[in-house]
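dumping this here before i forget
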Amino acid sequence: MLHDHELIARYTDGDEQAFETLLARYKAKIYTSIYLFVKDRALAEDIFQEVFIKIIDTLRKGKYNHEGKFVQWAMRISYNMCVDYHRRNKRRAHVNPNPEFDIFDVLRVSDEGPETIIMRSETHNRIRHLLDELPPEQREVVILRHYADMSFKEIAGLTRVSINTALGRMRYALINIRKMMTEREVLLQ
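structure:
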């Protein structure tokens, strides 16, 4: 398996297949993080396309910096585009799955029985509703940590806060989720 920087080098040398491999490697992770921020399938697809247009443009111009990891760089671009969208529209969105798209379909595939799948779906719906009620900066850290699988160091860099601030936001998010679960007697199976 080729490393990201090798695929990028091949792509800049004209190998279109190398970019397709890179895209396939990270598209679910990047799309998922965008969707969790904007909570709208069509908008997430639009932003996802804009992210990869920007990535392609940067790679073709030879402006990509090899010091960092490709996926963190791509995640920063997607994060910034989501932030820009929210600044332009100044509205708070909610995580609302629909019949066409459920984030957990992208994150996990299994051969479990129908009862387990139904219980997990109900649990995920409960978690989504609790997540939507968190303050934006806490919700952001939870999404980046658990859904985008980023380290706290990466989250701190992406959100431009200290690692301690990112850790604190996660801590308060967990405290708030536990408090809401207790108040509402929410059980997670």
